[in-house]
Request: fold
Amino acid sequence: MTEETLVEEAHTQAAPAVRHRPAHDLADVAFDPALCEPVEAGPVTRVELPGAEGRAWLVTRMDDVRAVTDDPRFSREAGTDRQVTRPAPRFVPARGAAGSLDPPGHTRLRRSIAPALTADGVERVRDSARRMLDELVDDLLANGPPADLTAEVLRPFPIALLCELLGVPVADRQGMHVWTRLVLSSAPGTAVGEQAREEMGTYFAELLDARADSAGEDIASLLGTAVARREITLEEAVGLAVLLQTGGEAVTGSSGQMFYLLLTRPELADRLRADPPIRPRAVDELLRCVPQRNGVGLSRIALEDVEIGGVRIRAGEAVHVSYPAANRDPDVFADPGTIDLSRSPNPHVAFGSGPHHCPGDRLARLASELLVDVLLDRMPNLRLAVPKEQVPFSQGALIRGPESLPVTW
Reply:
């Protein structure tokens, strides 16, 4: 049998289902068991997603994931005008949104905010971020136990931090917090969520217009200037501002999972308290280990026939990559199922790969490191207030994490 015949058989074989149940039923931070079958079947497998149209390819090994995400022959934009598999049946990416564009359009949008998200740009907000976090913990301690760590710290802190980076005035931040929660807690298409998104968009349009002639370093000023120079449209700028502001929910989800791990495995927290210098490496390891999302991300469409992992993917077919699976690739990570707080190097893809690599990765790392520093140092007796089985995890959401994290101290 020729190699070409083998490839053809791999292409036409019956598709193993990537999931046998809804993704939102997952209730801890373990690796998604529904991904185990395709991962074991091979680095590139055919899958069916619940409620989706047709089949797709799923790529799970690190080298192949990077190959797909770096290859311009796989297009995000091509999937916006056709029925393809999606992360969730109701999730339809908007045409023109930053997450749905290919270069050079995607590069043009990213360029407008790049200065605020460099290492220096993020470092600029470190002191103010630490003050905001300390204030939240002050309130937490003053109110006494028990408390919901998610509601009191892990959710408001990323929202406040993004407001700081975006340049939202302090007086407007409570309203931004309300809008963000309404947008994220409402099913797509519902009136309350759409109204909140529209109101947030109107707010940012006015803020960007007011900052158009400023020389500020915040994102609103950068976007306002880019619009004034006609480098991007106002609609694009507003969409990007809303995307960044609501992106704080990903930080809430990942930090919630981190602290769920630290509170259910106290030996990890004890080590971080005893050895502060390892904390940045430990945060990277925790980011590698916690599943950032339910299911798989947005599909990419092959624009021509491409071979990945020895399998021919034909023009027009949808491809998904699994970052959680790549983060457990045994060819890249020794003993990948073990949390090694000293792991180095740690080339994980928790923030994605390729042109769509998360632009806020440095900000997310800063937030995570500050949360570990402040909560572990200021609350040495922090622990769960309920058995770990009673911690409720989000349901029906793309972002995975505890809905609440009941704690005492």
